[in-house]
């Protein structure tokens, strides 16, 4: 790589960083504005918008409701996705590619199409809109991501570990729980955090499958209909901080566990 090429790649990289982070910086900055309207110049700074959202029963209720849905969805997605990965990973059978494609299909269907089809499906099942319907929709969407991550990790598991456990008298279930499952922990943590963030951020399915109790993205959308305000920026900033903390924790945990399993 020539010097000019390296300079060009550096310029492109930093231009992308600026393009990515400047809107986030502006969003965070507007959350401290001492005014009800978004825009420059900022004549005063305040923390009132943050104290207001932490005192708001509406915002806290939506946050707790969204977290409950995200945690339930993550748990179900990990169980189902790990089962699919364990079934498709080591086994070879006719039609495996078709089964794999069907398992991954919910991840590639456009969100609006998925939401409409899920709304029709819960009506067919005579299931009311609300928390259970949202969890069902989010789980269907998130399972393929868990399956893909776990399958990638499972492909690196040395078969000698499983064979050694079987030689020592472990049956299939014990070998999975004592050997395979601990080896999959980094992948499960990463997939779990990813599913939680997907569910927490999902607006379209939550909007179509939800009832009177809104999730946090739906609540933000409802507030946007009356115009932008620093309150929305404050809510978004809090969500951004929580997302960053979860992402950093997951990355550090996965790195530490990968080092442990590679020793």
TrEMBL record:
<keyword id="KW-1003">Cell membrane</keyword>
<keyword id="KW-0813">Transport</keyword>
<dbReference type="InterPro" id="IPR000515">
    <property type="entry name" value="MetI-like"/>
</dbReference>
<keyword id="KW-0812">Transmembrane</keyword>
<feature type="transmembrane region" description="Helical">
    <location>
        <begin position="12"/>
        <end position="32"/>
    </location>
</feature>
<feature type="transmembrane region" description="Helical">
    <location>
        <begin position="97"/>
        <end position="122"/>
    </location>
</feature>
<feature type="transmembrane region" description="Helical">
    <location>
        <begin position="187"/>
        <end position="212"/>
    </location>
</feature>
<dbReference type="GO" id="GO:0055085">
    <property type="term" value="P:transmembrane transport"/>
</dbReference>
<keyword id="KW-0472">Membrane</keyword>
<feature type="transmembrane region" description="Helical">
    <location>
        <begin position="134"/>
        <end position="156"/>
    </location>
</feature>
<dbReference type="InterPro" id="IPR051789">
    <property type="entry name" value="Bact_Polyamine_Transport"/>
</dbReference>
<keyword id="KW-1133">Transmembrane helix</keyword>
<comment type="similarity">
    <text>Belongs to the binding-protein-dependent transport system permease family. CysTW subfamily.</text>
</comment>
<feature type="domain" description="ABC transmembrane type-1">
    <location>
        <begin position="63"/>
        <end position="250"/>
    </location>
</feature>
<dbReference type="GO" id="GO:0005886">
    <property type="term" value="C:plasma membrane"/>
</dbReference>
<protein>
    <submittedName>
        <fullName>ABC transporter permease</fullName>
    </submittedName>
</protein>
<dbReference type="InterPro" id="IPR035906">
    <property type="entry name" value="MetI-like_sf"/>
</dbReference>
<feature type="transmembrane region" description="Helical">
    <location>
        <begin position="232"/>
        <end position="250"/>
    </location>
</feature>
<feature type="transmembrane region" description="Helical">
    <location>
        <begin position="62"/>
        <end position="85"/>
    </location>
</feature>
<dbReference type="Pfam" id="PF00528">
    <property type="entry name" value="BPD_transp_1"/>
</dbReference>
């Amino acid at each position: 790589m020539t010097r000019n090429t390296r300079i060009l790649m550096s310029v492109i990289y930093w231009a992308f960083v600026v393009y990515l982070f400047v809107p986030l910086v502006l969003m965070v900055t507007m959350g401290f504005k001492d005014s009800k309207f978004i825009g420059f110049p900022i004549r005063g700074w305040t923390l009132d918008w943050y104290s207001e959202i932490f005192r708001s029963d509406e915002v806290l209720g939506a946050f707790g409701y969204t977290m409950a849905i995200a945690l339930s969805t993550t748990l179900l997605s990990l169980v189902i996705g790990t089962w699919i990965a364990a079934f498709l990973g080591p086994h070879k059978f006719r039609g495996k590619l078709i089964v794999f494609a069907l398992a991954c299909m919910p991840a590639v269907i456009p969100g609006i199409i998925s939401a409409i089809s899920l709304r029709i499906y819960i009506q067919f099942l005579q299931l009311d809109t609300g928390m259970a319907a949202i969890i069902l929709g989010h789980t269907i969407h998130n399972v393929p991501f868990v399956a893909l991550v776990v399958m990638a990790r499972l492909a690196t598991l040395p078969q000698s570990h499983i064979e050694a456990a079987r030689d020592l008298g472990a049956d299939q279930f014990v070998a999975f729980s004592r050997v395979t499952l601990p080896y999959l922990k980094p992948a499960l943590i990463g997939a779990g955090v990813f599913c939680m963030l997907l569910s927490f951020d999902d607006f379209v399915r939550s909007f179509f499958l939800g009832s009177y109790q809104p999730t946090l993205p739906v609540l933000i959308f409802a507030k946007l209909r009356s115009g932008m305000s620093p309150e929305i920026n404050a809510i978004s900033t809090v969500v951004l901080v929580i997302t960053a903390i979860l992402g950093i924790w997951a990355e550090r945990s996965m790195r530490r566990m990968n080092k442990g399993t590679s020793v």
